[in-house]
Amino acid sequence: MNGPGINDFTLRIATVNGTGSASANGLLMKAIFRMGVPVVGKNIFPSNIQGLPTWYEIRVTGDGYAGRDGETHFVIAMNPETYADDLAELAPGGVLLYDSTWPRPQLLSRPDVTVLGAPLSAMCNEAFKAARSRILMKNMAYVGAAAALLNLDLGVIEQLVTEMFAGKEKLIPLNMQAVALGHDYAKQNFKCPLDFRVTPLDKTKGKVMIDGNTAAGIGAVFGGATFGAWYPITPSTSLMDAFQKYCEELRVDPETGQNNFCILQAEDELAAAGLTIGAAWAGARGFTPTSGPGVSLMSEFIGFAYYTEVPLVICDIQRVGPSTGMPTRTQQCDIQLCAYASHGDTRHLVLFPAHPGECFEFSAKALDLAERFQTPVFFLSDIDIGMNDWMVDELTWPEDYVPDRGKVLNAEQLEEVDAFYRYLDVDGDTIPYRTLPGTHPKGAYFLRGSGHTKLGRYTEKGPEYKEVVDRLYEKWKRAAAFMPEPVVKKSDRPARYGMIAIGSSDAAVTEARDRLEAAGVPVDYMRVRGFPFSDDVTAFIDAHEEVFVVEQNRDAQLMNLLITETSAPKEKLVPVLHYSGEPLNFRFVYEAVETALKVRKIA
Amino acid sequence: MNGPGINDFTLRIATVNGTGSASANGLLMKAIFRMGVPVVGKNIFPSNIQGLPTWYEIRVTGDGYAGRDGETHFVIAMNPETYADDLAELAPGGVLLYDSTWPRPQLLSRPDVTVLGAPLSAMCNEAFKAARSRILMKNMAYVGAAAALLNLDLGVIEQLVTEMFAGKEKLIPLNMQAVALGHDYAKQNFKCPLDFRVTPLDKTKGKVMIDGNTAAGIGAVFGGATFGAWYPITPSTSLMDAFQKYCEELRVDPETGQNNFCILQAEDELAAAGLTIGAAWAGARGFTPTSGPGVSLMSEFIGFAYYTEVPLVICDIQRVGPSTGMPTRTQQCDIQLCAYASHGDTRHLVLFPAHPGECFEFSAKALDLAERFQTPVFFLSDIDIGMNDWMVDELTWPEDYVPDRGKVLNAEQLEEVDAFYRYLDVDGDTIPYRTLPGTHPKGAYFLRGSGHTKLGRYTEKGPEYKEVVDRLYEKWKRAAAFMPEPVVKKSDRPARYGMIAIGSSDAAVTEARDRLEAAGVPVDYMRVRGFPFSDDVTAFIDAHEEVFVVEQNRDAQLMNLLITETSAPKEKLVPVLHYSGEPLNFRFVYEAVETALKVRKIA
Amino acid sequence: MTSFVKPKIRRLNEPTNGLGKTRADYDGAMSTLCAGCGHDSVTAALARAFYELSTDPKDVVKVSGIGCSSKTTTYFLKDAHGANTVHGRMPSFATGAAAVNKNLTYVGVSGDGDSLSIGLGQMAHAIRRNVDMIYMLENNGVYGLTKGQFSASSDIGSKAKKGATNMLPPIDPAIMALSIGATFVARSFSGDKQQLVSLIKAGIAHRGFALIDVISPCVSFNDHKGSTKSYAHTYQYYHKAVHADYVPPSEEITASYDEGEAMPVELHDGGSILLRKLDKDYDPTNRASAMEKLMQSQQTQEILTGLLYIDESRPAMAEHKKLPETPLHSIPYSKLNPGADALRKLQDEFR
Amino acid sequence: MTSFVKPKIRRLNEPTNGLGKTRADYDGAMSTLCAGCGHDSVTAALARAFYELSTDPKDVVKVSGIGCSSKTTTYFLKDAHGANTVHGRMPSFATGAAAVNKNLTYVGVSGDGDSLSIGLGQMAHAIRRNVDMIYMLENNGVYGLTKGQFSASSDIGSKAKKGATNMLPPIDPAIMALSIGATFVARSFSGDKQQLVSLIKAGIAHRGFALIDVISPCVSFNDHKGSTKSYAHTYQYYHKAVHADYVPPSEEITASYDEGEAMPVELHDGGSILLRKLDKDYDPTNRASAMEKLMQSQQTQEILTGLLYIDESRPAMAEHKKLPETPLHSIPYSKLNPGADALRKLQDEFR
Ligand SMILES: Cc1ncc(C[n+]2csc(CCOP(=O)(O)OP(=O)(O)O)c2C)c(N)n1
Ligand SMILES: Cc1ncc(C[n+]2csc(CCOP(=O)(O)OP(=O)(O)O)c2C)c(N)n1
Ligand code: SF4
Ligand code: SF4
Ligand SMILES: [Mg+2]
Ligand SMILES: [Mg+2]
C-alpha cells in the first residue's frame, strides 16, 4: 500500500525492561514530534518488572494518521533474546541496527534487509565508569545513532535532554556525550540519513502527546470528581495516579490544607465498587478505574447500583482476557460484559472514547451521565488508548461547563414538597429525584437492593416490582439520546459498504477507509461512541448493503450488541476481528475488507 | 378457557410464615396426590423467618398439567393482613373460607364469590390447652374443613398424619381431633362438597412429588459427585442440603467410617467457586449450587476455569433480580449471564432442566459435560423448579450409567507418552488431555489464567495466545451436539406459528399450546434444553412464520441468545415475557399469543 | 409485605430530649424479625442511645449488609438515610459514604455471617482505616436468614439445631479487631440494655471505628441447648469487665471514682468516657493486655463484656485523609475546577 | 517470553538425597523476577527443603495467587503440578485441591497484597479449616507487580519509594493468624536461608495449616531508606525467638538440649520438631503468651522470627472432614453409586 518514505515509516526498538530504555524511547518520539512531524508511539511491554523483552514502536506519520501501520521498517535491536523475532518482523527493504559489541553473523540471514552494527556497549563501557550508567548511556547512544540515520535534529534532542534532567544538570553533558557517541559512529560508518527519514514539518502545533489514562485523570479533575477509589490493576493504575497527582497539585485548599477530594486505595475491587457507590449515594461525584478482572469482581455491586439507582462510574481499561490473560496487551473484550454486567435484568450505559482527547472529555461526561441517569456508566478504554502516548489537540476545557448533578433535592426543595418518594417518576422523564444524607428529615429514605415499590418501600409484590424495573428499562432507553453521537466519515462517492468500529480501533479503521477509497472502494465509516445505540446506528446499517464491524475481540461482541440492540437486520453485519493483543493496524483492516469484497465479486 | 370443576381447580391457602402451616398445606396436597389425582403445589413465601404473609397454592389437575392455572377458585384465608388481596384474587364463582372467630363483614364485598366463615381459632382454643398447639391445630382444622368441602378422603389424611408423626404417636389423635373439628363444622354448616372438588383417579401411580433441588442433590449422588462446596443462599441451599443428607446416608464407608465425599461450607461464593475449581483440577467431580448474586461473585473464577479448562459445575437456582431482588420469588433472569459470565471472550455450556425429573438427570449430565469438555457448565434452574414439589415419574437411574470423566491420562498412559502438553489438541476433537496431581512426573504441568501456549507455557505472543482461544471457541461449538436435544411438541395440523421456551416455563407453555390448538390455533412448540443451541433450533425457527419466545425475565434474554447464537432471522422472534416473580401460568401464555395473533389478523 | 411504619402517637407528658424529641421519634418501621430475636433489643438500644444523645436523626446514616441483623437498619431512626447494601460489603459502602461528609454519624449494622465470612476482609480494612463509625456486629453464631448454618463465630463444640457439631475455631471479632489495630473494641449482650446503651453512646463519641460485638441470640435457629450463643449460655458465662459511660463535653465529671478502679478517657470532642473497671487488673487502654485477657477468656468460655479496649490517639480516616469541613458534594465547582490556566500549564510536559 | 526451563546438567559426584535426586531436580523454570528480589531466595529455600526431605516432587502440589511472589510457583519443583489462580483466591483453590487427595503435600505461595488485602478472608478461613498445607507469605510490604503501592502489611510511618507515608496500622499475618486459631505460625526472612529451610521442613511436617510469614524485600519498590521492609531494616531489627528443627520419624533425637531452652514437639507422623528457644521466656506452645510477645514486638519494631506458635493437637481438615485414604477421584463408581434399591427406598417419603 505504502512503503517507507520521508516522514512515513515505522521504527521499533527492542530492549529488555528495567534497563531504563523507556526514557530514551520517549525522547526519540518527542524529538520527532518537536520537529513538527506527527508520531504514533506504542509501548509493548511484558507483565513483569525487570529482565523480559519489551518493544517501543514509533510510527512517523506525516499524514497524521493516529494508528499503527502494520509494517516495521527500522528496528533498533538491543535485546539478543529477540533478535530472531525482530529480524523476522522487518518489512523487505528494512534496516536493523544492533549492538555489534558482540557481533551476530546470523543476523545477516535475510538478504532483503540491511543490518547495521554499532558497538554501542563497547563505546559506552569505554566512555563511562559506573555499571548502571553504562547501561543507561547505551540507550542514549542508540538515540544518537537513530538521530543520525533518521535525520533528527540534535538541537531538539539536546533541549529534551535538558528538560529531562532539570534539577540534575550535571547529567546533561554525560547524556549528550552518549548521544554523540552513537551519532558520530553512525555518521562515520553508515550512509546517513536513510532513505526513509524525518524532515521537519509544521503539523504538531497546538498538539500534545498524552496517554489516555492521564487525560482521563485530568478530565475527572476538571469534571469535578471529588471521590475516587481503586484497587491497583494494570492497565488502569495510571488513571488514578494521574487523578491523584493533579488533585494534590490543584485541589488542596490553600488556606486549610484540607483536600477537596478523597482518594481511597481499596482492599480489592469489590471494595472499590462499594466505596464508590457509598460515596456517590452520599453525594460525591466519584469513579473507580479498573480492568476486566475488576469488573467481574464488581458485578454484584454493579447490579446493586443499577437497581438502587446510584450513580457509578467505572473506567474499564481493557486488557487481553479471559482471566488474567495478557495483562499488558490490548483488546476490546469487555464490551458485552459492561453492557450487561451483573445477574438479573441489568443494562448499563457505556462510553467508547477513541483517543486521549476523548478520554479527557468522556471521563467528565461519564460523571454527568451517571448523575443524570443515576445508574452505572462504563468508560470503556483499553491499554492502547490508556497507556500509549497519542498526539491529540491540546486539551481545553469549556469555559461554561457546569457539572450535571442530576435530580437532587436540597433542603429548601424538600421543605416545600409534601412528601418525597425516592423512586417516583414525578415528571415523566423516567428519572426520580434523589436526596443526600444529612439534608432534611423529609428526604430520608432507605436504599435497598431488594424488591421495592416506586415509593421506595420494601415489596414482594410482582406488580409493584415490575413498575420499578419497567421504568428502569425506559430510563436506559432514554439515555441513548444523551450519549455522544456517532462520528461518521462518508465516502465522497455513494458507498455500498459501511464500517462500524469503536474506541481504539478508530485510528486504524479511519486510515483503512481512506486508503480503500483511494484504491477505488468507497466505504462509509461510523464510529459509535456510546451504548445504548442511537437510531443513527440503525439508519447507518440500513443505508448500506453490508457493514463491516471491526473490533478487537474473538467473539464479535460489538456486532452482537448491534444485532440485539438495534433493529437492523443481522445479515448485513460482517465481523472483522483482531485479537492478538497488539494494537490494531490499518493494513489488517484494509486487507480484511478487501479480501471479503473480492470473495463477493468472485461468488 | 376452563372453569373450576371436578378435579380441576386451584386452591390457595394464605397464612403467616412461622406458624407451622407448611406441614398442613403439604398434607392437603399429598392427600389429593394419594387419591390418585395429579396436583401442582406452589409455595409463595416471604424473605424472612416469621410473621409475614405466605401462600400455598394447590392446583388440582385431573388432566395432569404441571403448571399453574392463573386463576384461583378456592381460598383458605388465614391471614387477616391479606384478606383484601386474597378476596381480590378469587375468580368469579370462587369460594373463600376464613376464620370467623373474628367476623369480617367486609369480606362480603364481592357479590360474585361465596364467603364461608368457620370459627377455627375459637374451636381450637376450646379444644386445646397449650398456646403453641392451638396455633398448630388451627392449621389442622382448616385441613379438616377443606377435606369436607373438597371431598378429600379422611382415611388418606389419617394415614398421612400417622406418617407425619412417626415416633411421636401421641400427637396423632390430637391432630386428627383438630381435623375433625374443621371437618365437622364444615359438614354441618356448609353445603359439602363444593361443585368443584376431588374425586379419586388413578393417575399418580409410579409418580413422586419432589422438588427440583432435592432431585438435583440426589442426581449428584448417583452421578458420582464426590465434592461440593457452597455458600448458603436462597433458593439454592436445599440442593446442597439434599446432597449432604444422601451422602451421609449412603456414602459413608461402612468399614472405615470415612466419607466417600467432601462437602465444604465456603466463606462466600468466591471461595465456593475456588474450592470447587481446586477440587476439580485435582480430579474430584464437584459442583457448587448458588443463585444470581453468587454467579456475579464467581464471575472472575468462572473465566479462570473457562480459560484454564477446569471442569466446573455451577447450579444456579434463579430468583428475581437484579441485585438482592426478591429472593423468594422466581424468574429466569440469569440466562445471559450464565451463557457469557466473566470478562474477556468467554462462553459456557448451560443446561435448562424443566422439572425435578430433569434436575435429577441433568445434575449428573452437567458433571459429565464439565469433565468431558473441561469447562464451566451451568445447571440453570429456578425457585419454581427447585423449591416446589412437582409430580414426576419415580426417579430411576440407568443401570449402565458410567460417569464420563473425560480425557484424563493415568500413570500408565503417561509412562507411555513421549511428552505431555496440557493444551495440545492431539486428536483433533478440540479437547486436550489433562492429568491429576500426584500421578506421574511426566504429567506435571502448570495451570495459569494468564496467556499460555498450546504446550501450556506462559506466553505474551499474540499468535500463540490466539491458537488456544480459537480452539476454546471450537470446543464450545462442538459441545452443542452433546447437549440434551430439544423436545418438540408438534401440532396435529401444519402450524404457521411456533413457541420456544426453556426450563420452568415448559409446563405452562405446554398447556397453553394444547389449549390454543384446541381453540383452533395450531402451534408447534420446541423446548430448548441446552446452550450452545443445536441446529434443530435454527431449523425450528426457519420452519415457522413467527416464533413466540416465552421466558420469565424483562429483557428477553433467551430471545437475544437465539438471535445472536443461531442463524435464524431475528424478525421472526416475538418475545412473551413474564417477570412478576410468581411461577408462569398457562393463561398468561395463551392470552399473550392469542392477542398477538389477533393483532396480526387485524393488521 | 411493604414495610409498615409504626403508628406515631405521642403521649401526654412524654419525656423529651435536648431536641424536644421523644424516644418514639427514634423509631423506624415495624420489625419483621422473629418474636424474641436478640436483634430487636439491639435496635431498641440504638434508638435509645441516639435519643439520649439528642442526636438529630437526619444527621445519622445507617448502613448494613444482608441478613436478619442487617434488616434492622429500617427499624430505627426513620428520619435518617439508610442503606441495605449487598452481603458482607457494608464496610466499603459505609466508608465511601463517610468520606463524603465528616459531620454526620455513621452506624453500621451487621451480622456474624455478614462480617466474619463473606465480609471479613472489608470489616478488617474499615478497622485499619479507622473510619469514623460505630459498627454493631449482631452476633448469634449462626446464619439466621438462611436458616441456621454455622457462622464463623460458632465455638468449637457448639451444636446446630439440626444436630451437627462445629469443629472449626471461632473468629472472635473483638480479638480479630484488636489484632489489626482497632481503636475501640467493645462487647455486649442484647439482653443487657443498660450496658449496651452506654457502649453505643461511647462508641459514637469515639473518634474512629468503634466495634461493638453484641451477643444477640437467634431464637429460631440457635437458642437451644448445646448452643454457646443461646440466651441461657450467655447469661451463664456473661462477665462484665469494664463499664463505660459517655460524659458529654458540657457535663463535668462529678461522679467520684476510685483511682484504681475508674478512669476518664478524654475524647476529641471535649467529652470523655468514664471507665469503671469491674475487673481490677483489666486495663482497657493497653492493647497487649486486653488481648491477653480476651484470649484467656476464650479458654474459660467466659464472655468478657464492656469496653474492652480504647485508643483515642490514632487519627480517624477523616483526619489522615484531610477531608474538608464542607461535604464533598457541596464544594462549589469553582473550587473544584482548576481553571484554563492550570490546564494549559500542566500540559507543558506533554509537548 | 515463554518461560524458560533451566538447562539440567548434572555434575559428577553431585550430592543426592534419599530418592537419589540432586538439588537441581527440585528446580523449576528460570525466574523472571528482578535481580536481588527476596522471593527468589524463598524459592531456593523451598527447593532445598523438599530436597532435604527427599520428597518426590510429583507428590507436591504448588498453588499461588497473583503477584511477583505468586509467580514463583513455577520456579521450583517443575515435576510437581502447580497452579497460578486468581488474585487473592489461592486459599480456596488450595483447600479444594487438598480435599481431594490427603496424601500429597500442598504448598501455597502468596504475597502480602494477595493475602492481606484481596485475599484476607480466604486466608483466614483456610486457617480456620486447618487445611493441611504450608502457606508461604512472601511479605515485602508492597505491591510489587503493580509497581509499588502500599500493602496492608506496611507499618505506620513506612515510606513509599515515591515519598508517601503509610498512615494505616499493619496487618501482621502472624498476629492475625494467631487471633483466629492458627496451629502453626512462623516468621522468617528471605535473607536467612538456614532458618527458613528449617521452618519450611517443620511446616510441611506439621498437621494442618502452617503459616510462614517471610520478610522478602522488594528491591525495585521497597528497599529504600524509610521502608521498614528493606533488607537493611530487616537485618537491623531481626530477632530470632525460637529455632525449630524437623526430625524425621526414622531419626532419634540425639542432640542434647537443655530442658529449659529446648523441647521436642511430637508430630502425628511419628517425627518431631525440636524447638530451641533463643528467647528464654518465649513459649511457642502457649497461644496467649505468643500473642503477647508478638504484640510487644510490634511496639519495639522488633521482627520476631522462628517458630512462633505450634499446636499439634487440633485435627486438620482431612480429619474433621473424614476424608478417605483413596483420593476422591479414584473411588470406583460402584462405591459412589448407592444403587437402584437405595434410590427406590429413599423415594418413599415423596409419595
Ligand atoms: C452474595 C450473597 N450470598 C448469600 C446470600 C444469602 N444470605 C443472606 S443473609 C446470609 C447470612 C446472614 O447471616 P448473619 O450475617 O449472621 O445474619 P443473621 O441473619 O444471623 O442476623 C446469607 C448467607 C446473599 N444474600 N448474598
Ligand atoms: C482481580 C485483580 N486485581 C488486581 C490485580 C493486579 N495485581 C496483580 S498482583 C497485585 C498485587 C501483588 O502484591 P503482592 O501480593 O504483595 O505480591 P508482590 O508482587 O509484592 O510479590 C495486584 C494488585 C489482579 N491481577 N487481579
Ligand atoms: S431467624 Fe434468628 S436472627 Fe433471624 S429474625 Fe429470627 S431469631 Fe432473629
Ligand atoms: S518488583 Fe519487587 S517483588 Fe517484584 S520481582 Fe521485582 S523486586 Fe521482586
Ligand atoms: Mg448471624
Ligand atoms: Mg508484596
TrEMBL record, chains A, B:
<dbReference type="GO" id="GO:0006979">
    <property type="term" value="P:response to oxidative stress"/>
</dbReference>
<dbReference type="InterPro" id="IPR050722">
    <property type="entry name" value="Pyruvate:ferred/Flavod_OxRd"/>
</dbReference>
<feature type="domain" description="Pyruvate flavodoxin/ferredoxin oxidoreductase pyrimidine binding">
    <location>
        <begin position="220"/>
        <end position="382"/>
    </location>
</feature>
<feature type="domain" description="Pyruvate/ketoisovalerate oxidoreductase catalytic">
    <location>
        <begin position="18"/>
        <end position="183"/>
    </location>
</feature>
<dbReference type="InterPro" id="IPR009014">
    <property type="entry name" value="Transketo_C/PFOR_II"/>
</dbReference>
<dbReference type="InterPro" id="IPR002880">
    <property type="entry name" value="Pyrv_Fd/Flavodoxin_OxRdtase_N"/>
</dbReference>
<dbReference type="Pfam" id="PF01558">
    <property type="entry name" value="POR"/>
</dbReference>
<dbReference type="GO" id="GO:0016903">
    <property type="term" value="F:oxidoreductase activity, acting on the aldehyde or oxo group of donors"/>
</dbReference>
<keyword id="KW-0670">Pyruvate</keyword>
<dbReference type="Pfam" id="PF01855">
    <property type="entry name" value="POR_N"/>
</dbReference>
<dbReference type="InterPro" id="IPR002869">
    <property type="entry name" value="Pyrv_flavodox_OxRed_cen"/>
</dbReference>
<protein>
    <submittedName>
        <fullName>Pyruvate flavodoxin/ferredoxin oxidoreductase domain-containing protein</fullName>
    </submittedName>
</protein>
<dbReference type="InterPro" id="IPR022367">
    <property type="entry name" value="2-oxoacid/accept_OxRdtase_asu"/>
</dbReference>
<dbReference type="InterPro" id="IPR029061">
    <property type="entry name" value="THDP-binding"/>
</dbReference>
<keyword id="KW-0560">Oxidoreductase</keyword>
<dbReference type="InterPro" id="IPR019752">
    <property type="entry name" value="Pyrv/ketoisovalerate_OxRed_cat"/>
</dbReference>
Automatic annotation (TrEMBL), chains C, D:
<dbReference type="InterPro" id="IPR029061">
    <property type="entry name" value="THDP-binding"/>
</dbReference>
<dbReference type="GO" id="GO:0016625">
    <property type="term" value="F:oxidoreductase activity, acting on the aldehyde or oxo group of donors, iron-sulfur protein as acceptor"/>
</dbReference>
<dbReference type="GO" id="GO:0030976">
    <property type="term" value="F:thiamine pyrophosphate binding"/>
</dbReference>
<dbReference type="GO" id="GO:0044281">
    <property type="term" value="P:small molecule metabolic process"/>
</dbReference>
<dbReference type="Pfam" id="PF02775">
    <property type="entry name" value="TPP_enzyme_C"/>
</dbReference>
<dbReference type="InterPro" id="IPR032686">
    <property type="entry name" value="PFO_beta_C"/>
</dbReference>
<dbReference type="InterPro" id="IPR051457">
    <property type="entry name" value="2-oxoacid:Fd_oxidoreductase"/>
</dbReference>
<feature type="domain" description="Thiamine pyrophosphate enzyme TPP-binding">
    <location>
        <begin position="66"/>
        <end position="214"/>
    </location>
</feature>
<dbReference type="InterPro" id="IPR011766">
    <property type="entry name" value="TPP_enzyme_TPP-bd"/>
</dbReference>
<dbReference type="Pfam" id="PF12367">
    <property type="entry name" value="PFO_beta_C"/>
</dbReference>
<keyword id="KW-0560">Oxidoreductase</keyword>
<dbReference type="GO" id="GO:0045333">
    <property type="term" value="P:cellular respiration"/>
</dbReference>
<feature type="domain" description="Pyruvate ferredoxin oxidoreductase beta subunit C-terminal">
    <location>
        <begin position="276"/>
        <end position="320"/>
    </location>
</feature>
<protein>
    <submittedName>
        <fullName>2-oxoglutarate ferredoxin oxidoreductase subunit beta</fullName>
    </submittedName>
</protein>
